[in-house]
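Now read these lines:
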Amino acid sequence: MPFVVRYSALAAHELREAFAWYSDQAGEAVALRFLEEVERGESHLRSNPHLYQRINAEVRHLVLRRFPYALIYAISDDFVTVLGCLHSSREPLSLADWLARDLPKQ
């Protein structure tokens, strides 16, 4: 039975920001390719989320192939919860700090 992939509010926000950045900077075609790559990642998470490297006991990450992003996620029962969409070139935070981050104020 496939896993159900869901996104935290922060992860959904980060994906929208990344899409908007690619759309503004590289064009809509590149932004759509980014979303296709995210969807490919989701497909892998639905079929075998245990395949990807652990960050700690509960959190794993799937690195996107053509874009410098990783989907950070946790597995619980039949669900994969994407906790964030992390750009690989941003300044690293400790895992605790990264997990404690919050949505930016609008």
Notes: The first strand starts at residue 4 and ends at 7. The CA atoms of residues 13 and 103 lie 8 Å apart. The chain has one domain: 4-98. The chain has a mean pLDDT of 90.
